[in-house]
Specification:
Layout lengths: L1 H27 L13 H10 L2 E7 L2 E6 L4 E8 L2 E8 L16 H18 L6 E8 L4 E11 L4 E10 L4 E7 L1
Antiparallel strand pairs: 1-2, 2-3, 3-4, 5-6, 6-7, 7-8
Length: about 180
């Protein structure tokens, strides 16, 4: 009986560790402009997604998919007990959109660069940017250039423009404020 109890305890510990590690990997993929929605109530989260330009597309295997036409970004949202458990970037095809950009390259590369740049800019303000807007992004084989406006910084309505150079896999190579 003691062996069985020990087995149950270790199984529970492994399950808890997997859950903890799984949450960390999901959080790492959360787009910075939606990070504050993790833990939000479902109805309030839906309203906020709409306010941020996202439109509900579909639900597949318990994941809601939302599309932002302006940013050409798809996100997947898992809901548990009425709250947003996770918000993560998803492939455009999961939102029933074409995954190809005009250059013939996958928009996923540009999306990864945009997400990385948005996260890096938001980090410079301690995660307190009211809104981040991608002004433009240019894809190239080596790196993508992303120009962003950080709205509501430095304790007021100030907007600062940032230039970010990111690898297409999402590693920020250069980040600076532009005049």
């Amino acid at each position: 009986m003691k062996l069985f109890a020990s087995y149950k305890s270790s199984t529970a510990a492994v399950a808890a560790m997997a859950l903890l590690l799984g949450s960390a990997s999901v959080a790492a993929k959360t787009p910075s402009d939606l990070a504050d929605l993790v833990g939000a109530r479902g109805a309030g989260g839906e309203t906020e997604l709409g306010n941020r330009g996202y439109t509900y597309v579909t639900m597949t295997h318990g994941v809601q998919y939302w599309w932002n036409a302006e940013r050409k970004a798809c996100v997947g949202i898992k809901v548990a007990q009425g709250r947003y458990k996770s918000v993560s970037g998803a492939q455009a095809s999961q939102c029933h959109q074409s995954a190809k950009a005009p250059s013939g390259q996958s928009h996923q590369s540009t999306s990864a660069a945009e997400t990385a740049c948005m996260t890096a800019v938001n980090s410079n303000y301690g995660g307190k940017v009211k809104d981040l807007k991608v002004v433009r992004s240019e894809f190239s084989q080596a790196n993508s250039e992303v120009i962003l406006d950080a709205v509501g910084v430095r304790g007021g309505p100030t907007t600062e423009r940032w230039r970010c150079l990111s690898s297409n896999s999402g590693k920020v190579e250069d980040l600076r404020v532009v005049e």
